[in-house]
Hints:
Elements: H1 3-25, E1 28-38, E2 42-47, E3 50-55, E4 71-77
Antiparallel strand pairs: 1-2, 1-4, 2-3
Amino acid sequence: MNIKTAFSLLAAASLALTNAAFAAGAKTYQVTGPVLEVTDTIIAVQKGKDRWEINRDANTKVTGDLKVGEKVTITYTMSATEVEVKAGKGGGKKEGASPAGEPKKK
């Protein structure tokens, strides 16, 4: 087996495993409606009375001619980009609790 073939097989296996890991981790959703706007970074569709803007990038797979007015079904996942925890009811330090590793004061 030559080097090019070996690298090709390695790349294909890596891609397959990456896709399988991604598919197992995130729940997918769909939105269907007519396209209102298409750019390199978003696809906007009309769903009922609402305008839905879905982000897209170079890895977004598009089948067919994507243009304004066409009816599309977009499959997407939701992913957190930032999480900020704020103390409030039920959150934060309980009275009498001690941080891990420190004994309670008596």
